[in-house]
Q: What sequence folds into this?
């Protein structure tokens, strides 16, 4: 986004908030772009426009440092962020999900993206609960803006690899 803003001679003003708050602001044209945490297939296509996926992450279950991974998830209690939509996948594997607002301060098994598990010292298990594809959103009807953004994303050599490295280095969760 920084390189796109530079190419447009535009200033970035970051706004942090929940998905519903940011999408509403985008829909009302109070924001130009929403990034971070949006995944392909989100039920918002009627109110905003999405880019093509720019990054795919893999969700797994990990054990904290010093705790051994179980051989299977059957009967295990696993913390998962409420917005992760992975509770049903955990139940399919026999685990008992505990839905939380945040994974900070969690003890025990956690379901999260592999990069998050690595960044927090967790050992990721062999399970794949999903592979969400991340997208960005623009206001509805902004086809020229969406095209400009998509062309910029398409032109970024090694974008997926750079983002994966950044995510792996991100210690904020």
A:
């Amino acid at each position: 986004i920084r390189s796109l803003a530079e190419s447009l001679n535009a200033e970035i003003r970051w706004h942090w908030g929940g998905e519903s708050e940011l999408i509403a602001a985008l829909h009302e044209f109070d924001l130009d772009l929403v990034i971070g945490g949006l995944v392909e297939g989100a039920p918002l296509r009627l109110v905003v426009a999405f880019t093509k996926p720019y990054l795919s992450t893999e969700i797994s279950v990990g054990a904290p440092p010093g705790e051994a991974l179980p051989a299977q998830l059957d009967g295990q209690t696993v913390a998962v962020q409420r917005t992760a939509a992975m509770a049903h996948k955990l139940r399919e594997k026999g685990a008992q999900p505990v839905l939380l607002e945040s994974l900070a301060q969690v003890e025990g098994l956690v379901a999260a993206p592999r990069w998050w598990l690595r960044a927090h010292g967790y050992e990721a298990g062999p399970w794949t609960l999903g592979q969400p594809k991340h997208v960005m959103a623009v206001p509805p009807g902004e086809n020229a803006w969406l095209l400009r953004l998509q062309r910029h994303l398409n032109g970024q050599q090694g974008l997926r690899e750079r983002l994966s490295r950044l995510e792996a280095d991100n210690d904020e969760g």
Remarks:
- The CA atoms of residues 64 and 111 lie 11 Å apart.
- The radius of gyration is 18 Å.
